[in-house]
Structure formats: structure tokens, C-alpha cells
Amino acid sequence: MLRNKNGLLLLLAWVMGLAGLVFGLVLEPIWFARFGSLMVLFAVMSEYALLHGELDLLYQRLEKVQAEDDMPDLTPSKWHRKKVWLSHLTVILGTLIWGFGDLLL
Hints:
The protein is built from three helices and no strands. It is an all-alpha fold.
């Protein structure tokens, strides 16, 4: 469930950024900055969901390990790491839009 939620939240963050850009160009530039705050909100929610999904998976894998077993590979998948990177980038971009979006348009 969390895996689908973080992707949806990340997509929603980018939709908010694009909607803000449209509203900023059509109505007033301040709307671009306001929608930047929503972009940050959804990106942070996505990061939170990614973190908890990763921790849950880690704990599930560790519960299966016996004392005499070798440690399994616990590294996250490449796709997971790309989503984390994209979430970080979205938070940074959304923060810049939030702070300076009205000045950029």
C-alpha cells in the first residue's frame, strides 16, 4: 500500500507545481508561489512514505534472519533510490518556487 502511495504523492506534487505555473501565468504570479507550498507538502509526504516503506521492508527481512544465517542483502532497489532522489529534488524545487515563484514569473 505504501509503495503506491508515495508514487501518487510525488505525482501530485508535480501536478501542483504545474497547476501553480498555469495559474501564475493566467491569473497572478503569486499563485505560482502558493502552489509551491503544496508541492513541498506532497513531496515531504512522499519522502515520509518512502522512508517508512523502506523501514518496514528492512524489519520484515531482518525478522526472517536466524542467528546462524548469513546477513541478506538489505539494500533498497534502484527504483526506490530514484524515487527518493526525485522526492528530494521536488522538495528543493518546491521550496524555491514557494519562496521566489512570484518573482520568477
